[in-house]
Design brief:
It is a single chain. The protein contains six helices and no strands. It has helices at residues 4-16, 26-30, 43-55, 63-68, 81-87, 92-116. The longest helix has 25 residues, at 92-116. 16% of the residues are buried.
C-alpha cells in the first residue's frame, strides 16, 4: 500500500494540470487572420504574410503570380499541387503546407465574418 501512494500522487498531479474547459488549440490561434478582417483585395497578401510569420516559409514574392490567376486563399486548397508548383516558386512540401494553412486560414476568416454579422 505504501508503494502505491507515490503512483497515486503522480496521477492526481497530472490530472490537475489538465484544462477543465475546452480551449482553442495553439495551432488554431496561430493561424487566425489578423483583426480587423482584411479587405477582399488584401486577403491574399494577409494570408501569405501570416503563413510566413507562422510557418517560416516566405511565399510573399509569389503574390502577383497568384493574384493574376485569381487564386485566393479560399480556393488554393483545391488547386492541384502540380499546378501550384508551376505557378509559385516553391517545392511540393511547401505547397502542401501552404494549402493546409490556406484551408484553416480561410475557414477561420469565414467564421469570423459570420460572427460579425
Amino acid at each position: 500500500m505504501a508503494a502505491m501512494i507515490p503512483l497515486i500522487s503522480n496521477l492526481v498531479l497530472k490530472s490537475s494540470n489538465v484544462p477543465k474547459s475546452p480551449t482553442t488549440p495553439v495551432h488554431a490561434r496561430e493561424t487566425l487572420p489578423t483583426s480587423p478582417i482584411p479587405s477582399m483585395t488584401s486577403e491574399l497578401h494577409t494570408c501569405l504574410t501570416d503563413f510566413m510569420r507562422i510557418k517560416g516559409i516566405d511565399l510573399v514574392a509569389n503574390e502577383a503570380a497568384l493574384a493574376v490567376l485569381d487564386l485566393t486563399p479560399d480556393i488554393i486548397p483545391v488547386v492541384p499541387i502540380t499546378r501550384l508548383c508551376e505557378v509559385i516558386d516553391a517545392v511540393e512540401g511547401q505547397v502542401w503546407k501552404f494549402q493546409s494553412f490556406c484551408q484553416e486560414w480561410s475557414d477561420h476568416l469565414e467564421d469570423k465574418k459570420h460572427r460579425m454579422l
